[in-house]
Design goal:
single chain; alpha/beta; 5-stranded parallel beta sheet; 4-stranded antiparallel beta sheet; 9 strands
Length: 215
Amino acid sequence: MINFRIEQTDVEVIDLCPVCDCVDIKNLSTAIVNKVEYLQTSICSQCGFVFRNRRPSLNWFIKNWSRRDETQKTERIDFVNEDIEIDRMNRYKKTGQFLKKIIKGRKLIDIGSGTGTGLKAYQDEGFEVVGLEPDPSRARVGVKKYGVNIVESTVGEYCHNSSKDKYDIATCLHSLEHFHSPLSIIKSIAKLVKSDGYIYIEVPDFVNFVSDWND
């Protein structure tokens, strides 16, 4: 069991809409633990963007991913949900089949590749794949189980440290909504893609965005 402690100083607050810089944002829900308001979801009254305007900082996540990874290794915790991974494999396979119809190149980078199941599906469809995943426990599964190429890095670090190589396509499936700054992330992803390349993004809808603490 891992206890993820959070203090008020670990929480950052966003006063402007990350998409259009509007100041008129309205609260939808708030999550509180030990009197710390660690999550707040709001909607921009101008562009309709739904986002976390109160959330743990990126440094908090990176620190606790490492803590979780050490605990999972020490206690040999198997956190992989096979049903979820089978669904992910099927979704990525269909995405890969679709992408092959619109692009000739096969050099692909996947942003937020998690346990690497999607990368394996892309690879099976004939793509030359690289995945970015800052959570070491998830990245390790993909490397060990599938032998795929996963770089333990944030998008910003990878853009700063990577070579001049460009990709034919970058995919970001149900990952963009987890990033702290989606607009800057998209700009960074664009730098990784060839001038005639593509960026493919999937995000969830918000039919049930206030149904529970996950929003």
